[in-house]
Structure formats: structure tokens, C-alpha cells
Amino acid sequence: MSAELAGGAARPRRQPWRNLMVFLAVVGPGIITANVDNDAGGITTYSLAGAQYGHALLWTLVPITIALVVVQEMSARMGVMTGKGLADLIRENYGVKVTFWIMVALLVADVGNTIAEFSGVAASIQIFGVPPWISVPITAVAVWILVLKGTYRQVEKVFLVACLFYVAYPVSAILAHPDWGTVLRATVTPSFQASGGYVAMLVGVVGTTIAPWMQFYLQSAVVEKGIKPEHYGHSRLDVIVGCIITDVVAFFIIAACAATVFKAGVRVETADQAAMALGPLAGKYASWLFAFGLFNASFFAATILPLATSYYICEAFGWESGIDRKWGEAKQFYSLYTLIVALGAAVVLIPHLPLLRIMLLSQVVNGMLLPFILIFMLLLINKEKLMGPHRNGPWFNGVAWLTTVVMIVLTAWLVVTGLRDLVTGA
Amino acid sequence: MPQKQASQEPRFLYLSELLGAKVRDAAGRPLGRVSDAVVATSETYPPVEAIVVRRGGERVQLPWTAIRARRAGQLEVDATAAQAFQPASAADRIRLVEEILDQQIVDVEGAKVVRVNDLHFLSVKGALRLVHVDVGFRGLVRRMGWERAVDGAVRLVRPQARYLEADQLLSWKLVQPLSSAPGKVRIDVAQRMLADLHPSDLAEIMEDLDRQQRTVLFDRLDVETAAEALEEASPEVTTQLLEGVSPEKAADILEEMAPDEAADVLAELPGETRRELLEAMERPEAHEVRQLLEYHPRSAGGLMTTDLVELRRDTTAAEALAEVRRRADELPILHEIFVTTGAGRLEGICTLKDLVSAEPADLVGKLMREVPATVVPEAELRDLAEAASKYNMVSVPVVDEAGELKGIVTVDDILSEVLGER
């Protein structure tokens, strides 16, 4: 009798939907993080890759997706199994000094990236005829209010909707009428050109994929969401789906630019120039969609980057943090957030500022930081005390270390050329 | 570190000042650098028992008693005293750097989770006792090795700055470390104070902790405190905590909880675990919970509790008050008593005020008034909220088609559901 009562009404009714419901409940961190990866900087890189080299770089998306999945999966797994953010773990295992310098570097890189996002907002909105001094302050205030007044659930929903708008890219790619057969063939056949420009672009495309802040953000988001170890399978799926969506978007950006700008031989240097160049070649709707996509991505990243930065800095130093708290409860968290948003927006509005060099600098700092973050992650995820049976297996470790080494070599290249450009002022 | 040790005692010392100090023997031969300190936790203010000295990759424990002289950044050790030392077993010992420094701890007095930036010792008669935990910003600055520079800079700009005095030191007594394995560390004071915290503070602390720490903390609570805290915690945390303790303890905790809360918790658990726990619970409690489990969790039936005072018409006011007094402790809200027939049909209610102002011999049947509103078990949150607010009811009775009283939904449960919806 007890069993029949206990099994009761709730269980059979829930069972068939349970899997889907759990997945939907767990979805978010992985998809959001991976999508933010396609921010103003990412879209610029992909647009230029398509505009300058046609289909020649499409094949890199396959290994890039694998690398992204490997690294992000580790972040999510550590978050779920330990219930702690990456900054927490680094502080607890490697002490305050290491943590402090990592946080300083992240802050510098992230402020630089936020500036890049706001200039993406300015450039994309300008295509619709609105000047930056209107679009940038309005965006900044909108971004600020969203996080300050929202709860985690609300903010996450806004983010998930922003992910949907990335569909602008596939649509504008379809409007550009590429030869899909050639595009698909180019995606699966690796090719290589010996020119310096091609190599630089290849490194750029790979380098824009895995940024240090993403690992911190993903892990914190997984923790804040409170995903349980038994639901980790769903969380992993969230990560994998997110990484694939991201690179599918990248694929359409490259394809759209390759089919139009590259084919017509137009010379472009920024993402908004690419968007404008699409107009006469693929129609004004394609052009507008492309610009809208850039705006969405920039807005989205301008929210998440400052948010992520505030999260892990507070985590590292033991200050209260979280969207669900009020200002008085998490002063440092909200002050940092406000500061980064304000700085990011203000710098874009200063006339005659060397914006490109600031962005270059932030990329260099990003690149210098990445090896440390990846190595720390690998060391932490192999700690028995932390991860128990969820440590990396030998095969996964092999792939992860290989990915790490390749990422380090490529970003080292980026840093060296970036530094050279910074010094020579190119 | 000051130069003249012995003459200035007692004095304070930070762990960060001790770490990295060069250790030498009496002949001046280097032995390595201090990398950790071991304290015995059996006392309220634990004494440092040994220091861990690292040389190359090797770590050696040296007894604190072997230290002959202490100067800025240097310790001199009596090698013969050191040799005789046998490091004690791990039980009741903590390594401060490994297990406390940089970790999260519970500040029992402030009812929050904080991060340890530094540890503060008092040096008395050659012994070093752990007295405070530094959780302040200045502790961070000190750890970075910038205390002097930053202090100087602050003094230059604003000599009255709060920063210079406001060390956030928590007494070790008020701290509950969580990094060690359960049972290994015993700090009675902090543990007793944990039980004194308000259940919602305790629940909030648990939400701030990671999974392992949460389980450690929860394991240390007595059944009653654990039940109170669980009632306040979020469903995710609750289920995870219950799955972390033994089924017997989980069943004890569930029995201690109000039946409606227990049912809510059980509804979140996987079917297998739920059955197991229900089997382990005492019969009457398990029966009530099972009945509640049959209702949709967000309906009146799912929200109601069966903890209420139910009396017959022919009870006197004095007997009723005695019954109220007897049960007051276990009931979350006690504002009305319910008058029912032998078959359990609800006939009327009496407020506490009615009972207190009546003559002791008055019969409840005479005192009772008509029930302003009842709801069916299937009723939704909106109906409940409306009934409670329209008729100023502290608890809304849930009655089935036959008019039988099934339970009550208390206003605090309605309120938290309404707020949860937002």
C-alpha cells in the first residue's frame, strides 16, 4: 500500500516530459556563453575572413568548434561538480597573489573588450542613420538597468532571446545567394595559403574563439543556476549545442561576405563596412540584417562582459555578488559593473581616441592571459580532491592538453604581432 | 616583525608575517621557509603546534616549541628539539594555509559566508594562539605585501580614513570552518551558535556555500535545527541536502518538519528516494505527508498543512486553551481553532481571542463563529490569496466536497508563494 501511495499522482504524469523539462531548465549558461563569443570582435574577424579570403578559412570552423567544446565542457563540469566559480577555485588552490594579478589582467582586457562592444553598437546603429552620441548612451543605460533591476531568471531570458536574433546572419547569408555546394566543400576540405596575411587571419579566427573571461563566466553561470551533478548530462548538451550554434553563425557570416564582398573584390576593414558593402551586392535587407546582427551581438556582449567581470572579481575577493542581490547587499559587484559599462561607453564617445589601439591592447592582454587560465583549468580539473571521479580521463586529458598547446602557440603569435603593431602604430 | 620578541609579549602576529620566513638552525644553516602552520583545534583559541617548513619539494613539520628566536622574516630552530618531534595524527589538527586561508568560512555571528584573507595570532609566553580571522580588505592588501605602502599612501591622503582602523577581525570562536572533513574539527562554541541562528539566516548561509561545504554544515546540525533550516531553503538546496545525509537522519528531519513542507520536499525527490524515506518515517507522519503528496503542489491541497487544532463542540474554553497550550510549540501559526463533528465535518472556528475572553466553562460550540470562507483542495493560489485578504484570515481552511476539514493553508505560505511568482 505504501508503495502505491508514495509513487502517487505526481510520478507517472511527469515521467515522459521529465527529460525535456530538465534539459530546458538547465539550458542557458552554455548557449549564452558561446553566443557572446560572437561579439563585435568576433563578427569583425569572421566578416573580414570572408571578405578578404572568401571560402578559404571556412574549414577552420570544424577544429575551432572542437576546441571550444573541449574547453567549455571543462568549465561547466567544474562548476557543476564543485559548485564553485573558476576564480573561487584559483583563489582557494593557488592563493591570493596569483588571483590578484589574473583579476587585474582580466579587468584590463574586459574593459578593452567592452569598449570594442560599444564601438560595435555605435558603428552598426550608424548604418541606420543614428549618430553614436545618441545610440551609445541609450544602450549603456539600457544595459545597466537590465542588470541592476532584473533577477537572474529575467536577465537570462533576455539573453536567450538575444541568442535568437543571431538568426539575422543565416538569413542575410541566404539573401546573398552563395553557391552552397562550394561553401560546403570548402568547409570540409582544409586548405592553406603561405601568405603572411592568410596566416595572420587564421590565427585571428582561432584566437577570437576562446577568451579567458568566457571560462569564468560559464562556470559562474552554471553555479548560479545551481545545476546538480545528476543533471550534468543536460548541461553538457547545453554547452555542445551552444558551441555548434556559435560556429554555425560564424559559418554564415563568412559565407555571406565571401559570396558578395570577396567576389566583388571590394576592400573592407571593419564589420560595419562589410555590412554596408552587402547593400549594393545582396540587397538592402541583407545589409540591414547584417548590421542588426552586429548591433545585437555588441549589445549582448556589452551586457555580459561587464557582468562576467564583476562576478569573478567579487568571487575572487570574497565580496557578495549576483544579479539577485540588491545594491546595498553587493556594493562592490554593482559598483564594478557600473564602472565598466560607464567606462566602455564613455571612451567610445571621446573624439580622436585611438580606439583601434585600445582594442588591440585588450586583445593582446587577452592572449597573454589565456595560457595561464587554460593551464590552471587543466590542473584544477585533474585534482582528485576537487573533482573525484569527474576528473579528466586520459583520453580527454590528451585532447585537452593538445588543444591548450595549440591555443597557446596561436595566441602567442597573436600577442607578438599585436605588440609589434602596437609599437609600430600600424 | 619587531626585533625584541620576548620583552614585548603578549603581542599580535599575522599568519602572513610568518609565511615565507627563513628557518635556520642554531648554527645558522638554512632549513627552508615556512609554508604552513598546524594548530590543534581542541581548544577555543587553538595553539600553533608545529610549522611546516619547505625546502625544495620537501615539507617537514617542526614543533613550535623548538623555536628559539624569532626575528623579522627569520626563525631559529633548536635542531635537537626538532628531531624528537613526532607530528600528531590528523584528527583535531588543521593546517591553516591548506584548509583555512583563502577559503570560505561561516561567520556565525554575522550570519554570512566570508572569505579568509589572513589569520591573527596572539603570542603569549612563547605560545602562539589563533584568535582572529581577518576577512577585511586590509587583510587582502597585507597578503599582497603592500600593507606599508598602502597604509602610508592612505595616511598621506586621509589620516582619519576608516581603512586604517577598520580591520575586519572575527573572533575564531564565532567562526565555523568547513573545509575539513566532517567530525575532524570540533568547535563547540560555533556549533552551538549555529543552532541559535534564525532558520532563514541559516538557509541563506547554506545557499551561499558550495555543495560539499553545505553537506558538511548540514551534517553538524541537530535534527530540529536542520528541519527548521530546510523549511526556509530553496527546493534545489533542500533535496540536495537530504540526499547527502543517511536515510535515517533524513527521515528524522522530515518528521520534524511541518507536514506540508515535508511533502513539498519529498515531491522534489526522485520516486525511489521518496519511497525509501516515507518507509523510514514514523507511521502517522508518513501518512499525513502521503496524503498531501497526492495534491498538485501549487493547489490548496499541496500548500496546506495538517498541523492544526481541531476540537468538538462540547469542549470547554478551558480545555480548548489547555489543548492550545499543549500544542503551541509544534504549530507554526496558532490563531484559530477549528470545530468539527465526529466525522470531521467543519462546523465553525474560534479565534484565540474568543477563547481567552470567554468564561472557562463556556462550550466551544457556543463560542464558535461561522467560517468566513473555505476552499476546496483543488483551489488555486489566487482563490487562497483572495479568501485570506478579503476575510482577514490568518489561515484558510481546506474542505472537501463532503465538508470534511482536510487542512489549512497559512497566510505565510500563501505570501511566499505569491512573492515567488512575481
Describe this structure in words.
The complex is a heterodimer of chains A (426) and B (422). Chain A is mostly helical. Chain A is 80% helix and 0% strand. In chain A, helix 5 (61-82) packs antiparallel against helix 13, helix 7 (132-149) packs antiparallel against helix 16 (331-349) and helix 9 (168-175) runs parallel beside helix 13 (232-264). Chain A is globular and about 60 Å long. Residues 1-15 of chain A have low confidence and may be disordered. With 422 residues, chain B is of the alpha+beta class. In chain B, 40% of the residues lie in helices and 23% in strands. Chain B has helices at 15-18, 79-83, 96-99, 137-143, 147-157, 188-196, 199-208, 211-220, 223-232, 235-244, 247-256, 259-268, 271-280, 283-293, 300-303, 317-327, 352-357, 364-367, 381-390, 411-421; strands at residues 11-14, 22-25, 30-40, 48-55, 58-63, 67-71, 74-77, 93-95, 104-107, 112-115, 118-124, 127-134, 169-171, 175-177, 310-311, 336-340, 346-351, 395-399, 405-410. In chain B, the strands form five sheets. In chain B, strands 2, 3, 4, 5, 6, 7 and 8 form a seven-stranded mixed beta sheet that branches. In chain B, helix 7 crosses helix 9, helix 9 packs across helix 11 and helix 10 packs across helix 12 (259-268). Mean pLDDT of chain B is 80; it is low at 1-7 and 181-186.
Short descriptors:
heterodimer, A: 426 residues, mainly alpha, globular, B: 422 residues, alpha+beta, 7-stranded mixed beta sheet, 4-stranded antiparallel beta sheet, disordered N terminus, MgtE_N_sf (chain B)
- The N- to C-terminal Cα distance of chain B equals 56 Å
Report how far apart the termini of chain A are: 80 Å
Global geometry of chain B: elongated
What oligomeric state do the depicted chains represent? heterodimer
How does the major sheet of chain B shape up?
7 strands, mixed
- Report helical residue fraction of chain B: 25-40%
The structural class of chain A is mainly alpha
What is the averaged pLDDT score of chain B?
A: 80
Number of strands of chain A: 0
Mean pLDDT across the residues of chain A is 81
Q: H/E series of chain A, N to C? A: HHHHHHHHHHHHHHHHHHH
Q: Which protein chains are joined by the largest interface, and how many residues does each one contribute? A: A-B, 26 and 33 residues
How many H/I helical runs of chain A?
19
Give helix % range of chain A: over 70%
Beta-strand content estimate of chain A: under 5%
Shape of chain A: globular
Summing up helix and strand content along with how strands pair, one would put the structural category of chain B as alpha+beta
Helix count of chain B, per DSSP?
Answer: 20
